[in-house]
């Protein structure tokens, strides 16, 4: 692994960030700067924390800490998507598809976090 770009969780989270950003612009205008902004920021945080954690990979506990932040932001993103799916039924199908993707990403982040915790050499 030469770069964070080699991490599957990085690539999935980046792809989901772009999808989520586009999705967030479909909610009503009055919500774009409230719930939409929260959704965009939490989705971006998943990816950004993976990158920052990788940058600190020399320090195992820092790497783990940022992976935990990434996992937490993933859960936050799922929560925002759930709220949008309930508030705006016309967006619920797309929101639920994104939730499924984020659920899968959460599993992968969790598994990678366990790998780092048990196998990472500093």
Automatic annotation (TrEMBL):
Gene3D superfamilies: 23S rRNA-intervening sequence. It comes from the Bacteria. InterPro entries: 23S_rRNA-intervening_sequence, 23S_rRNA_IVS_sf. It comes from Cecembia calidifontis. This is Four helix bundle protein. PANTHER family: FOUR HELIX BUNDLE PROTEIN. It holds the Pfam family 23S_rRNA_IVP. NCBIfam families: four helix bundle protein.
């Amino acid at each position: 692994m030469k770069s964070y770009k080699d991490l599957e969780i990085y690539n999935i989270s980046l792809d989901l960030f772009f999808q989520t950003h586009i999705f967030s612009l479909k909610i009503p205008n009055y919500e774009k700067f409230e719930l939409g902004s929260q959704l965009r920021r939490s989705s971006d945080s998943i990816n950004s924390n993976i990158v920052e954690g990788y940058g600190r990979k020399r320090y195992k506990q820092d790497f783990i800490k940022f992976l935990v932040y990434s996992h937490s932001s993933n859960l936050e993103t799922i929560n925002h998507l759930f709220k949008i799916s309930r508030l705006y039924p016309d967006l619920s199908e797309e929101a639920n598809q994104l939730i499924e993707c984020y659920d899968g990403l959460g599993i992968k982040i969790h598994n990678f976090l366990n790998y780092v915790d048990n196998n990472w050499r500093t």
